[in-house]
Amino acid sequence: MSETPDDDRLEELRKQKREQLKQQQQQGGGDAAANAEAQQQAQQQAEEQKQAILRQYLSDGARRRLNSVKMSKPDLAERVEQQVVALGRSGRLQDQLDEEQMKELLRELKPDSKSFDISRR
């Protein structure tokens, strides 16, 4: 099985994180500041992993569209990112998503708009 450079990078990041956690456990946990810093590092590393997966499974056009949506509707963009990451990790994405597929995914995940009809009597 040949791994892509992104897979190698993800595995390297995971290995570094395991080593960091092991060192922290050996030190007895440390104080609250050290725990907050470790939590921040873990969040940063998780974000880096998510971005690596998105780079792997999104074409340039799809990435641009997602970034545009992120500016106006960050909640929707976050849901789309989570969906793409979940599909990628589960192996259900074989190729990169193109811009048209991204549009379809955005339509599916967009909440239904509510309209109000006001009638006067």
TrEMBL record:
GO terms for cellular component: cytosol. SUPFAM superfamilies: Double-stranded DNA-binding domain (SSF46950). Residues 22-46 have a biased composition (Low complexity). Residues 1-49, 59-78 are annotated as: Disordered. Residues 11-21 have a biased composition (Basic and acidic residues). InterPro entries: DNA_bind_arc, PDCD5-like, PDCD5-like_sf. One of its GO terms (molecular function) is DNA binding. Residues 1-10 have a biased composition (Acidic residues). Pfam families: dsDNA_bind. Keywords: DNA-binding. HAMAP family: dsDNA_bind. Belongs to the PDCD5 family. This is DNA-binding protein GCM10009017_04260. It comes from Halarchaeum rubridurum.
